Amino acid sequence: MTVFEAAAVPGEPPPADSVAPRDSRPDAPTSVARLNSTIRDFIARWNTVWVEGEITSWNVRAGNVFARLKDSRSDAQISIRVWSSVRPRIPNDLAVGDHVIAAVKADYFVKGGDFSFIVSAMKHVGLGDQLERLEKLRAQLRQEGLFDEARKKPLPFLPHCIGLITGEKSDAEKDVHRNAELRWPQVHFRTEYAAVQGDRCVPETLAALKRLDADPAVDVIIIARGGGDPQTLLGFSDERLLRAVAACSTPVVSAIGHENDHPLLDDVADLRASTPTDAAKRVVPDVGEQRAAIAQLRSRATGRLTHRISNDIAQLEQLRSRPVLRSPAPIIDDRAQEIWLLSSRGRDTVNRRFDTAQRATAELRASLRALSPAATLARGYAIAHLDDGRILRDAADAPAGAGLTVTVDRGSVRARSEGEIAEDA
Questions:
Q1: Last residue of a domain, one of 127, 161, 193
Q2: 122, 139 in Cβ contact below 8 A?
Q3: In terms of residue numbers, what domain contains 156?
Q4: Which of 49, 103, 345, 381 is buried most deeply by CB count within 10 Å?
Q5: Based on the structure, what is the number of domains in the chain?
C-alpha cells in the first residue's frame, strides 16, 4: 500500500478525511488537508540533492531567507528557503546575481499548498552567468565610448511633444503624465506601449523606440518602468536595445526606477532619472518656477533700466548746469573776436611777405637785365656767329669767304668775311 492508499471499512462509505486521493469518488471526495498531507508525505521521502543555479531574488524576513534560483541555461526556476538556523553556516555575502550550488530538500507546506526547497548548505561558484555577461558588455560599451558624456545629447528646455515608452496602464505611465501635467499643463505626449519584462520586452521596446525616433514632432523620449528585481530588468541591459538608444537622433531618458544594480540603459541613455516621477521633473520645466523666474528677470531689468535712466538724467542736468551750456553766447563772441584777430594777423603777415617777395623779384630782374647780352646789344654792340653756331671771338677763325650771322639789338643779318684786317691799316 502506498501513501496514496488508505484502509476503508467494508460496506460503509469511508469518511471524507479518510479517503485516499487515488480512491476518491464524486460521492466520497477527499479533503484538501488529506490531499496536501498525502503530497507532503510523498515528497518527504525524496532525498537531499545538490543543485546549481543563479540567485534571482533574495528577501530576508524575520531572520529567514526566501529566494529563487534560476537555471543557468534556461528560464526554469525554483523557490528556496533558508531558515535562520542555517544562515550562520552559509556565506553572509550572498546576493542577487551570485552563481551558487546548494543542498536542497523538497518541502510541501500543507496549510498553504506551497512547494519549495529547504536549503541546508550553499556556497559560491562564481559570478552568475547573467551578471558576468552584463559586466563584460558594460566593459565593451564603455570602451566603445557609449557611456561618454560628450556623446550624449542635451534635452530641450521645453519639449512640445514627449515620447513615452512604458507598460500599458502601468503606474509608471500615470506618474509621468501626472507629474508632467502638474508642472506644465499644456505638455503633449505620444505614448507607445511595450512589455517591460519577459521575452517581449526587447523587441517591443525596439519597435516603439524606432517609431518615436522617426517622428519629427517628438522632442525627447522617456523609457519608463517602476523598478523591479534584476531578473525582470534584464531586458533593459540587452545589447540590441542599448545600441539602438545610442543611435537615436532624439534624446532618450532612462526612467527604470531602480537605484541599486541599475540596468545598462541608465549608462547609455542621454539622461538617467531615478524614477518615472523624477523623469517628468527633469524633462518638463515647472511653469510656476518659470513664471517666477520671468517675473524676477523683469523686475531686475526694470530696476536696472530705471537706474540707468535716472543716472543719465542726472548727468544731463549736470551738463546743462555748466556755464558753457547755460549761456554759450559770450563764449562764442570771445571765440569770434579771437578768430578775427587771428585772421587780421594772418592777412598782414601774408601782405608783408608778398611785398618783400616783390622787391626781391624786382632786384633779381634788374640784376638779370644788367648781366644780359641783350643790354650790351642795345648799346650798339653786335655778336657774330660762324655757320657752325660758334661765337666769333678771333678774327683768324673767319678767313675770307667765311659765312657769318651778325646779331644786333633788333634782329640778325647775314655777312661774309673778307678776311682779317691788319691792325695798322
A1: 127
A2: no
A3: 144-285
A4: 103
A5: 3
Do 149 and 277 lie in a common domain?
Answer: yes
Say yes or no: 233 and 271 in one domain: yes
291 Cβ contact list (under 8 Å, min separation 6) = none
Residues 152 and 260 occupy one common structural domain: yes
- Residue 272 lies inside a defined structural domain of this protein: yes
- The CATH number of whichever domain residue 67 belongs to comes to 2.40.50.140
Cell 611785398 belongs to residue: 355
On whether residue 39 sits in a domain, the answer given is no
What does DSSP assign to residue 72? S
Query: Are 192 and 228 part of one and the same domain?
Result: yes
For residues 167 and 120, membership in a common domain is answered with no
Residues 280 and 171 in one domain: yes
Could you tell me if residue 152 is inside a domain?
A: yes
Rg (alpha carbons) of the chain, rounded to whole number: 59
The Cα–Cα gap between 73 and 60 comes to 27
Of 32, 36, 43, whose CA–CA distance to 107 is shortest? 43
Domain co-membership, 153 together with 236: yes
Write out the chain's pLDDT in tens, 425 residues. Answer: 444 444 344 444 555 455 566 677 887 888 888 888 888 888 888 898 999 888 889 999 998 999 999 987 788 899 999 999 999 889 888 888 777 889 999 998 888 888 899 999 998 875 555 677 788 899 999 999 999 999 999 999 999 999 999 999 889 999 999 999 999 988 999 999 999 887 788 999 999 999 999 999 999 999 999 877 666 787 898 999 999 999 999 999 999 876 555 789 999 999 999 899 999 999 999 888 888 889 999 999 999 999 999 999 999 888 878 777 777 777 787 788 889 999 999 999 999 999 999 999 998 988 887 777 777 777 778 888 888 888 888 888 888 888 888 888 788 888 888 888 876 65
Complete edge-to-edge strand list for the sheet that includes strand 383-386:
383-386, 403-408, 411-416
Residue 183: how many other CB atoms lie within 10 Å:
18
Is residue 201 in a domain? yes
User: Residue 49 pairs with which residues in a beta bridge?
Assistant: 104
Q: Tell me: do 215 and 175 sit in the same domain.
A: yes
Estimate the crossing angle of helix 201-214 against helix 239-247, to 10 degrees.
10
Q: 239, 283, 278, 233: which is closest to 255 by C-alpha?
A: 278
